[in-house]
Amino acid sequence: MTMRGLTAAQADDVRQALLAAERRSGLRFGVFLGEPVGGRRHFAERLHAALGEEADDAVVVFVDVTGRALEIVTGERARRRLPDSACRLTAMSMATAFSVGDLIGGLLYGISALAEQSTARR
Prior knowledge:
By secondary structure, the protein is α/β, with parallel strands linked by helices. The chain has five helices and four strands.
């Protein structure tokens, strides 16, 4: 998890949200804030693949703060509980928060919403 540009308190809030989401859903959650190396989607998929054996049950949220873009990547088993349509809706809500300058609120909402939706589909 890399969270460039956050204060220590903000990073701690995001870590706590990730842990709560993992406990609630049984999935692995990760967040990366920064600039992509190469194409944004390809970079997010590489971050996800770097989780190795945990990737099938993982959800990675990549936020390119400078490029004002967001990618959510799910593993094979995670996708059964979090379809692309659910991720798109969550991403739209997150992007709305980001657009008004609320990066932390958007992240916390997104992590919680993804965990909630995955739990509802168990």
